[in-house]
Amino acid sequence: xxxxxxxxxxxxxxxxxxxxxxxxxxxxxxxxxxxxxxxxxxxxxxxxxxxxxxxxxxxxxxxxxxxxxxxxxxxxxxxxxxxxxxxxxxxxxxxxxxxxxxxxxxxxxxxxxxxxxxxxxxxxxxxxxxxxxxxxxxxxxxxxxxxxxxxxxxxxxxxxxxxxxxxxxxxxxxxxxxxxxxxxxxxxxxxxxxxxxxxxxxxxxxxxxxxxxxxxxxxxxxxxxxxxxxxxxxxxxxxxxxxxxxxxxxxxxxxxxxxxxxxxxxxxxxxxxxxxxxxxxxxxxxxxxxxxxxxxxxxxxxxxxxxxxxxxxxxxxxxxxxxxxxxxxxxxxxxxxxxxxxxxxxxxxxxxxxxxxxxxxxxxxxxxxxxxxxxxxxxxxxxxxxxxxxxxxxxxxxxxxxxxxxxxxxxxxxxxxxxxxxxxxxxxxxxxxxxxxxxxxxxxxxxxxxxxxxxxxxxxxxxxxxxxxxxxxxxxxxxxxxxxxxxxxxxxxxxxxxxxxxxxxxxxxxxxxxx
Length: 515
Known about the structure:
Elements: E1 5-8, H1 15-22, E2 27-30, H2 32-49, H3 75-86, E3 90-93, H4 96-110, H5 119-130, E4 134-135, E5 138-140, H6 149-159, E6 164-166, E7 172-174, H7 175-181, H8 193-196, H9 202-232, H10 242-246, H11 251-264, H12 285-288, H13 290-312, E8 320-321, E9 327-328, H14 336-364, H15 387-403, H16 425-455, H17 464-475, H18 488-499, H19 502-511
Parallel strand pairs: 1-2
Antiparallel strand pairs: 3-5, 4-6, 6-7, 8-9
Helix pairs in contact: 1-4, 3-6, 4-5, 4-9, 9-11, 9-13, 9-14, 9-16, 11-13, 13-14, 14-15, 14-16, 15-16, 16-18, 17-19
Keywords: Lyase
EC number: 4.3.1.3
Organism: Streptomyces scopuliridis
């Protein structure tokens, strides 16, 4: 595990830090600047708490109950109660990395000094992360507005020593027992602190950041598999020429075409289409337009990264402590900016999966594969080859198309119509995670088919980078052409090869770094 330290200051964080904490279990420390900002903001909240005038989140109820003024004798109970009542999630547990990202991003906002939380609370949040304690968070409970309320509440519940959490050994037990085992004192929340721990877009943002990291690898992987399919189909690389993409200057399109061209450099297979009995003038769209489709997805990913970076630099809470000492209500907790790009990425991912599946199907169809055996089978008729691998890929793509239906266009009013428009950003993030998972498998199936097809082109020499991809896949234990065998282990091996970055790592020593 990556155990380097991430320092949390007042100016936000980076996507790399989120991934390091969520997936690499990097240690978290608060900067001196952050501790000073926390203390200063807390002084403002304490001063407001001592006044008779009602201040939302400090001396009032919440949501539609904000009209009630709460006396000092009930305020600690008020903060405990908001956490307990809002920890109302249901359904399967959310993945450990998502919860760690959620906790880290809430700590990032707390450390900004805009929430009025005491330094003690922030230190405890860091201690829980560093101890490897992960609150049990459930699939359902966030509408993506007023923050990811239920997921964040389950995390706040752990800080209080209540509810259940997973220890570093993966065993779920009462949170209080885990805190005690690691020498962490439960927090007794004071004015505003319960609300401040719940009111952010941290869950959907954490999932967006990790999806962007995964999709960057997958778009590069998809350029490689598209190049391998083009080569296996004896297609032309002329359509990848830089001057053709310069006249339609979408950055992603140019990057994808350049990647494919570098993979195909030195190929002895490309261009042989003119030797067919019926020479092709052009390749099919799924081959010829690969850079245009993957490139559009790359540009979508670039926009999503801009949105993520803006959110990572934000302090999302309500009310918020401003630099001049005012405490003001606001609507910055609304998840629309994040929800839109989560949905947009699911659309782009579905289309990338769709075009990859079409190339795979072409490789298997003897009427369109230009001399390859039916289904890439060893003895067609006796062997079925990769026929059902394409079925599996088609099922994955069909699921991705359903997952591409936007979540952010829906809104169900809540809190007695006080919260009458919500983003559904958490739902958009959850379905994107599934889409990314499926896309990895779709690309793996294309890789498996294309490498087998290239190896069946006896007498022709593939590009050095293509050979490196084949060698890497075979070294990972995924077998090449031959009689029918139990296919699921090979597909699982190809999936692991793509998912772990093995495909990109295998070709880059030949091509140099790919975009």
